[in-house]
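Email to the structure team, subject: Phage replication-related protein YjqB (UPF0714/DUF867 family) model.

Hi all, the expression group asked for a predicted structure before they design truncation constructs. Nothing fancy, just the tokens so they can compare against earlier work. One-line instruction: predict Phage replication-related protein YjqB (UPF0714/DUF867 family), return tokens.
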Amino acid sequence: MKKALVTGSRYAFYSFVGLKPDGNSKLHITSTRFDEPRALKLVGAVGTTVSWHAAAGDKVTTYVGGRDKALIKKVSRALRAAGFSVAAEVPQEIGGDGPRDIANRNRRGMGVQLEISRGQRERFFEDGKLARAWVEDPAHRTKDFHSYVAAVNRALR
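Reply from the structure team: attached below.
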């Protein structure tokens, strides 16, 4: 999704993904402990950051957290206007509001963290499949996928 957002745009992109066909959750690094030098250099050079994360749960929703309260409101409004559920409350453990969170390590010290539930992510791909090879193939992306990316893009303008 992140890659789709930045394709043909003015946005920079960095991705940390597991390369195994499955079982990549064992490689999880929390966003407050992620300190890969290239990522920190990129984030430190920009004024706005949106980090995308996979949240657990079958509920079809997105948790929008972070420290950039104005952008959180814009992203939440844009997602809701596009017909997506945005949770009213973000659990503390995925809130993305710590100063060491990768989303908040930009020049302004505040960004947005999207935690997209498994239930929501399943709606982005045909047959609800989330295997890496499946989600990387643009042919399997649903209308919801494209609408979601477009909504976040509108909020960033």
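The two ends are 17 Å apart (CA to CA). The chain has a mean pLDDT of 89. Ping us if the truncation boundaries need rechecking.
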